[in-house]
Specification:
The complex is a heterodimer of chains A (about 375) and B (about 675). Chain A is of the alpha/beta class. Chain A has helices at about 1-5, 65-75, 100-105, 125-135, 140-155, 170-180, 200-215, 230-235, 250-255, 260-270, 275-290, 315-320, 350-355, and strands at about 20-30, 40-50, 55-60, 80-85, 90, 105-110, 190, 220-225, 235-240, 245-250, 325-330, 330-335. The chains are: A alpha/beta (about 375), B alpha/beta (about 675).
Chain lengths: ~375, ~675
């Protein structure tokens, strides 16, 4: 895997510039539930990260991990309850829909559902002209020129501009959505599960297209998905999220090859590989990296570690104290085992845990 | 006045949101709906009547044979005659002329409330529906107050205060009924506010009013036009009632309400007087209402009543039963029919759908496979390859318009020959389905216990206690430890993984020998998917189930599959044991699927992928259907249909270039990068 890392062209741009493109500090998104005594749901619970220009940052996690909510909060589509978002030197924490014109030229989005994200009653050309007219103030004639080159960029025929979305397949619609996101040359595109609804071949085609466009335009991606292999293939760095918190963050290749946090390990072992022999090994592994199935698990503690109910290395401290982001090799891991001062009986067993050699605790 | 009640207190009815835009409509469908409607004779008659009424009212001055005010005291209360076609009233005035002259003002004045209601209801409803919050709460409160106002009483009061000022009265009426329009628009706006393309426009910095006009108004427009018809006919009837009471209209001038009033005074001595005006009124209101309701029914969002299961299952005509290959059966029997170890045998299965031209378009074209006891067969391929249709055809659950031919034998019994009633007995007890969307497969109105209990009762019977015991047993069987509390819960209280477990329990309730799972884990998170796959495997081991699993994920195939049938464009292109298929695919399409997996891909290096798309059934070529996308295709591939060829003892492939493929794989594994 080490040879793979060094051959990846991404390593060259790992050097983080002085001012990152996007800085998110202690982001919180709470959703109020009906009933005046019900506590709000912490969809995003104190998440901080930075994203450099030209970089791809992967957010990976399952439903309820808050990965899409983070994306929506950055886009002004989810209410931010706390923290700060700075994009390209501007604080956009408070930027609501309506005064997003200046944000729009820097930040764009590709959604998961290529069927819902295009207005069925407008031609592709009109859909693509919208951001040009709204954010860049381009008149219709210039917009037409731009649209032609946009369609060429995403490998769609020119006459696609005059057709309606229902004339296109899911993969083609996703290309149109990508063209819309690219229209005003944003610095950052949020890909919110942009390839999750596509078949494996189409998924590969769209991933290749996104990679090409990044090389051409230098756009940065916030790449949100639930599939760890896909995210680690496409991203420079990865954040592993669980119940609104970052469990592990670091270089994509390392996290994919040797996940450190018990949750990352569970996630890694859960995605089946297309090789019957390897998969049999992985299947055995996935029974070792979780203590119980989700159906049997107790509810997660208010304080403490959200993965405690399913973790094979759980100790008393995991139920009561929130883990700090402990540095480990080239990443940070929010797990008491990785924090020598946490009071976890296995604290200091970080290397053994990562290697999969740490014995489970008694529970 | 037998037509309808005065809508004084009934204005709420006018304003009920009748059709909400659940799904975004494809463009032009409203115009299509109108065009369709015009082909129906009843609608044409209604429309013709409305046009006739409008035209004759406009041209009353020309058409009317007499002055509507001219009195002929010699011919008072006369019946129809050559001079007076419809007879005369108590002052000897011509009835026909009075009817022709009496509708115009009424029809015109009834437009005012509609316009007022739209001017108020549409912008306010769209705005507060979009922004929500306090503005929404306030507007909703005001509308609730409006609904509480008896329109007739207020308008009567207004007529007294304003000295019978008709325009003023109609405007007030319009304000009162605008609440209905407001409600409709607000509900439609709220439904379309969170559509993804609205989000995308917001992210692009499009201004609020542009979003409302461009992306939201089209979703509201259809129901709004329909509502306009109903509101207009309501307003028309209301004004007729006013003029009957002698309000709003000049008592000297004829008006339809006035005519009814005059006629009512002579019901005893001259009942004929009521007949022409009554018919005109009834016909006009009925025509307007009928037009509105018919438009509503033709809206694409309207639900039409439809037979849930056709009593007879559609049968493919013999000429279409062989799919695209006309020479009938092509593959030898995959297994002996009555072999108990092979519960499901599918042979030369063809699934076709009716085309608008009346022909049959195959989407599954001669598929054959057999599933052994305790074995999992995976149907693999991209969307549009026919894998789901194959699975549904084995269960007799094809969507409307589809029909199957060939042979599906369950424990030796031919399923395609069974009637729908016989098939219903087979489904559940011998072959069962697990669907992709667990939430969609559970009824949100009933608890898990009652849904599972129903199925248990159906298949096993027994007392309530026995049924309950069996329900808990089933829930524990699918790995739910706290069966008691889960049994009590309703589907919306379950997580996706838990719901899929309950669906599996439902499928197992009838103790089937074959389970068909249509992408059972696609909608689930990876860790839940792993749990469900483990569960299916352990169930298969303990119960000896034969499993047919539809998936597009070769990882899932590696995890649970024993045999895989790779499908492309309606055909099986490769059938092989999973281990061998994944280690060395013998069809270029299987190879392409495998290469596209990002599992071991390296960052920055493009993924090897198959260019192009799966062809639509109507574009299937007469030769190898993969040739257009195949890197190994040669001229020989385009000479004719490629049959399934035996590659090894237990493997077949629909490719004539398997040797070439094997050679390129060898090159790749020996380290020589292409």
């Amino acid at each position: 895997m080490s040879s793979a890392q060094s051959s990846a062209p991404s390593t060259a741009r790992h050097a983080v510039p002085e001012t990152p493109l996007l800085t998110v500090t202690d982001l919180r998104v709470d959703y109020k539930l009906p009933g005046w005594r019900t506590p709000p749901v912490k969809a995003v619970d104190g998440v901080s990260f930075t994203l450099a220009e030209h970089e791809t940052l992967g957010l990976v996690g399952e439903s309820g991990s808050g990965k899409s909510t983070i994306g929506r909060a950055l886009l002004g589509l989810a209410p931010i309850s706390g923290g700060q978002v700075v994009l390209n030197g501007h604080d956009i924490t408070e930027a609501k829909a309506g005064d997003r014109k200046h944000v729009a030229s820097d930040l764009q989005v590709v959604f998961q559902d290529p069927y819902g994200s295009l207005n069925p009653s407008r031609t592709v050309g009109k859909t693509l002209a919208e951001p040009l007219e709204a954010a860049a103030g381009v008149d219709t004639r210039t917009a037409l020129e731009e649209i032609r080159s946009l369609l060429a960029k995403v490998r769609l025929p020119e006459d696609a501009a005059d057709r309606y979305p229902n004339a296109f397949s899911g993969g083609q619609r996703q290309r149109i959505a990508i063209a819309r996101a690219l229209a005003i040359n944003p610095k950052l595109i949020v890909c919110d599960e942009a390839i999750s609804a596509l078949d494996v071949v189409t998924q590969a085609q769209v991933l290749n297209l996104l990679g090409e466009l990044q090389r051409e335009t230098g756009v940065a991606f916030l790449f949100i998905a639930h599939n760890l292999p896909v995210v680690s293939y496409f991203s420079d760095r990865v954040l592993v999220l669980y119940r609104g918190r970052i469990m592990e963050s670091g270089p994509a290749a390392t996290i994919h090859a040797r996940p450190a946090h018990p949750y990352s390990q569970a996630l890694r072992a859960a995605v089946p590989v297309p090789n019957a022999v390897e998969q049999r090994v992985l299947r055995r592994q996935r029974q070792e990296v979780v203590r119980v199935t989700t159906a049997q698990a107790k509810p997660a503690p208010e304080e403490g570690c959200p993965f405690a109910p399913r973790c094979p290395h759980v100790a008393d401290v995991c139920w009561t104290k929130r883990p700090i982001d402990a540095p480990f090799e080239d990443r940070t891991v929010a797990c008491h085992v990785f924090d020598a001062a946490s009071g976890h009986p296995q604290a200091g067993g970080a290397a053994a845990l990562t290697a999969g050699e740490l014995a489970p605790t008694a529970g | 006045m037998t037509t309808a009640t005065v809508p004084a207190h009934g204005t709420q009815g006018v304003g009920e949101p009748l059709a909400q835009p659940g799904r975004p409509r494809p463009r032009g469908s409203f115009a299509t709906a109108i065009r369709d409607a015009l082909h129906r004779p009843a609608i044409l008659i209604a429309l013709g009547w409305v046009v006739l009424v409008v035209v004759s009212s406009v041209l009353a001055g020309v058409l009317a044979p007499h002055d509507p005010l001219a009195q002929d005291l010699d011919n008072r209360l006369a019946g129809p005659s050559a001079t007076y076609w419809l007879g005369t009233d108590e002052l000897g005035r011509d009835l026909l002329s009075r009817i022709l002259h009496g509708g115009g003002v009424l029809l015109l004045a009834a437009l005012i409330p509609v316009v007022v209601a739209y001017l108020l209801g549409v912008p306010i409803g769209m705005f507060v529906g979009y922004v929500g919050g306090r503005a929404d709460a306030l507007a909703d409160f005001v509308v609730n107050v409006l609904f509480a106002i008896p329109a007739l009483v207020v308008v009567l009061a207004v007529s007294v205060v304003t000295d019978n000022n008709l325009p003023f009265m109609t405007v007030v009426f319009g304000v009162i009924v605008s609440g209905g329009i407001f409600r409709l628009v607000r509900a439609s706006t709220q439904a379309s506010r969170d559509l993804l393309y609205v989000d995308a426009a917001r992210v692009s910095g499009v201004s609020r009013w542009t979003i409302l006009l461009r992306h939201i108004l089209p979703n509201v427009l259809g129901p709004l036009i329909v509502q306009g018809f109903l509101l207009y006919s309501g307003a028309f009837l209301f004004l007729t009632s006013l003029s009957f009471l002698g309000l709003g209209f000049d008592p000297q001038q004829p008006s339809w309400g006035q005519l009814v009033f005059d006629a009512s005074a002579h019901l005893d001595d001259d009942p004929w007087l009521m007949v022409p005006i009554g018919l005109v009124l009834i016909a006009t209101v009925a025509a307007l209402n009928y037009l509105g309701n018919s438009l509503l029914a033709t809206l694409p969002t309207a639900r039409r009543a439809r037979l849930l299961t056709p009593p007879r299952r559609p049968v493919l005509p013999p000429e279409a039963a062989a799919g695209t290959v006309p020479e009938g059966r092509r593959t030898p029997a995959a297994a002996e029919p009555a072999d108990t170890d092979v519960p499901l045998v599918v042979e030369d299965l063809v699934v076709s759908f009716r085309t608008p031209e009346g022909g049959w378009q195959p989407v599954v074209d001669g598929v054959s496979f057999a599933v052994h006891r305790g074995e999992t067969l995976c149907l693999v391929g991209e969307s549009g390859c026919g894998k789901t249709m194959t699975a549904l055809a084995t269960l007799g659950l094809l969507p409307e318009g589809g029909a199957a031919a060939g042979s599906v034998r369950l424990a030796g019994r031919e399923l395609l020959d069974l009637s729908e009633r016989e098939m219903a007995q087979v489904r559940g007890s011998q072959i069962a389905l697990i669907s992709q969307e667990p939430m969609g497969a559970l009824d949100p109105c009933f608890s898990v216990r009652s849904q599972l209990g129903d199925v248990v009762k159906l298949h096993r019977g027994g007392s309530r206690a026995e049924v309950r015991r069996r329900v808990h047993e089933l829930l524990r069987l699918v790995g739910i430890p706290n069966a008691e509390s889960v049994a009590k819960s309703f589907p919306h209280q379950l997580s996706g993984g838990m719901a899929q477990r309950v669906c599996i329990a439902l499928a197992l309730a009838g103790e089937p020998s074959v389970l068909v799972a249509d992408e059972p884990t696609t909608a689930l998170d990876p860790t839940i998917q792993a749990e469900i796959l483990d569960l299916l495997r352990s169930l298969q081991e303990t119960l000896g189930l034969a499993l047919v699993l539809v998936t597009h994920d070769l990882g899932v195939v590696a995890d649970i599959g024993d045999v895989a049938a790779v499908m492309y464009a309606g055909q099986v292109v490769e059938l092989a044991p999973v281990d061998e298929l994944l280690a060395a695919p013998r069809h270029p399409y299987s190879q392409g699927l495998l290469d596209a997996m990002p599992e071991d891909a390296v960052r920055g290096v493009p993924l090897p992928t198959v260019a192009g798309m799966v062809p639509l059934p109507k574009d299937w070529p007469g030769w190898c259907r993969f040739a257009a996308r195949c890197p190994l295709a040669v001229d020989a591939c385009r000479e004719g249909p490629v049959p399934l060829l035996a590659v090894q003892a237990d493997r077949t492939s629909r490719c004539i270039r398997t040797d070439e493929l094997a050679r390129s794989q060898e090159l790749a594994t020996t380290g020589v990068t292409p």
